Amino acid sequence: MIAQIRGRLIEKVPGHVLVECAGLGYELDIPYTTFFHLPETGQDVTLYTHLSIREDAHNLYGFAARLDRDLFRLLIKVNGVGPKMALAILSGLDSQQFVRCVDNRDAAALVKIPGVGKKTAERLLIEMGDRLGKLEGMPQINAQTPDLSTSPESMPVHKPEDEAEAALITLGYKPQEAAKAVSRVAEKGMSSEDMIRLALKSMIPAS
Q: Where is this region: Domain I (predicted)?
């Protein structure tokens, strides 16, 4: 089991990173909440990881904090929730927001995440409500996400607006929804990361 990886960040695009470690390049799928905290390419990065082994593929998932990784592991145990949906959930809601959704039984916030229907949202509230109390690290859930360049913890586009729209589309939003959300928040000089963050916040309000 690969539980953590530390190395040089070679490439980062929304949803994916390439990390060089001991001469090998590791491709990891990441939630957007992790993407927002990545250092610049060429710098060292440390990610908590989960390795999924299937007959047709070995997939490595990376997370900014151990709590995020542990939440991911709990999510994929829920019936009907696979790694792709778990990443979408942790992209639309950070750990604190997700726990608050479960505590408040807020299914409405969950169904705004692409791919999460009403039945899945209700199942998440029931099953995750029983499991979150046993999750190690819950008392630190209000802590700031660590700086990935120091803590152990491609899509070719040209404009920040294009990159932000492409990122939202990979999450499952329709092109028209993505374009509308980005145009609503975009300002001159704003980075694609900020556009993605604000667009997601506008589409999935905090509960």
A: 1-64
